[in-house]
Amino acid sequence: MILVLAALLLAADTPVDAERAAWPYRRAVTITGRESLASVVLPPELSAKAAPFGRDLRLVDETGREVPYILDWTSEREGLATWRVDVKDVRREKEEVLEASAIRSQWTLDLGEPRTFTELALRVPDAAFAWHVRVEASGDGRGFEVIHPDAALFDQTWNNERVRRTEVPFEAPVTARYLRITARSASDSRALEIEGASVTLRRRLKGDAWSLNVTADKVAAAGGSGTGATRYRLDASSLLPFDEVEIVCDDPAFSRRARLIEESGAAGKKTETRLGEGSIFRLRASDALIAGESVRVPARSGEGGGLFLEIDDAGSPPLRGLRVRLHGSRVRLVFPVSSRSLTLYYGNEGTRAPSYDLEGLRPRLAQAMGQSAAEIGPEEANPLFRRDPPLRFAATLGASLDSSKWRRERAISRIAEEDVYTITLHAADLASLRPDLADLRVVNDENRQVPFLIDPDFADERIPLRVQRQATAPPHRSLYSLGPADALRGEPPRVSRLEIEVSDAFFERSARILLATNQTQREVPFSVTLSRKPPSSAPLVLGTSAPLDVMTLEVDDGDNAPLDIRSATAIVRVPRIVFKAAPGNLRLLLGNRGAEAPRYDIGGLRGELLAYSAIAAHAGVLSENQGSRPGLLSGFEGAPRGALVWAAIILAIVALVLLTLKTLKGA
Description:
The protein has 667 residues and is mainly β. 10% of the residues lie in helices and 45% in strands.
């Protein structure tokens, strides 16, 4: 009886989860008040798992019916109002009668009527200044109360970056009509000038702001970042609704340029997006006139890629004890109350944003935001979550083919679930394929084709080369043989560049690359000047399009000792294939000189497939296709091009001799 009751209870709970089976996460939402409208603050960590801009959020009651809502981004409600402020009175006087006494300057500002504001912005015409001011407020112009005892105003150029701050933020909203600003200056220094001001109300309801400490691990700077930059990987999701990044460190004085970067894409073809950039500085000094700091950079949320902080150090050492703190505005869900117990589902990346008619009532609903708060529970996994395959309308199988016409194959690890997968090819694969890759196929156990797309020049494959200095070389020259450790079968692919490690610290010499097949003709496919100056120790990079085969590096030494070349690496640009596959066994087929380029309908989804975060599938070693039926000329297909040329010449000579003998015999 107990088991039957438990089964009935379980059956009562599962229909709602089953209808939202494509959503992996859920949270209970409980209505605590009695109003007809309610709002719930979404935890920042929820944004890290939800789709960008909250398009996958679904609020559902116990019957499974969706509850319409609007998303209230509190960051968008900042800067609610701004008012200009007139300078009513300016006074300057010496603090004492002595000639060297400091001068006290005082400005009285009139807002016209009592205003509530959170920020004061001053119009200062001067440049290259550093001041500390005291700000007081009054409702009637007689009794003033200090609202900021020591606000820093400055305009300085540090590290070739101009840093200017003439705004004074307040920790809490201030209501006043009059403001009084007081500054001190030495008798022989220029006095501060204020032409006007404005106040701004940035409305943030209680609990709107959040902060999160983030771990920052130092990584190698990106190649395009320039020298003197330090990059840190941040342990946080770029989907978090942050609007500022704060750099915390132990250095008492610094001035740097900082960038927040989102990195997306797969290895070998990554893209970077700047989410924020600005100058940070700190100067701790006993002189209050020059001391100050600004360590926050405005930023925006990303699309779910990796999050990095990059700081330009120039010639200075990296900041000591660097930590990062993200600041942001909370996001609210505002909805009409139809039930006291609701469930919020999220985490479905493939869904679109809902369209509710509540959007037309946003101005009215904005007045009720935060009036009746609801409680949100901890995150739970949807027990009936079933992952919806991406691009479900795209076919996973195409026409059959005769696999016996393909010479080589690579087995692909078994596909466990329907999804979009990718495989990056190797240089050995390119050697087995035609230059146009028209003889590449993906098939299943029944030799049914799996439609795929080719993403050319996707990644770099680094291939170590054997380096051997030749004993016999012309006078004042050195010859170095460079070749892959394992010879490739077939037509070798082209090399995009060579990276050569040299022990010598300083040199400048002419050099050229010669191919093994044309050294006797002294053809020079590529020539360059090899040079290095201290303190550089980076490898030499030589751009070339020579085939990945034995080549010779010829260096003009003059009267210098030969270079000590320690190692060499060839970089070959290799493509990847992207395909959607159902569960099962697959394999790659390579090497069919008579094959025509495949034509798949999936080509119309090229943008969607290449942009999708495909799962990397593992392909085994390249081997002979056991089911192939060799043709008459198949034995020559894997031979090097030079050998084929010589074989053709020898055959032509033999044919000519036979024809001559036959002619003589007939005569």
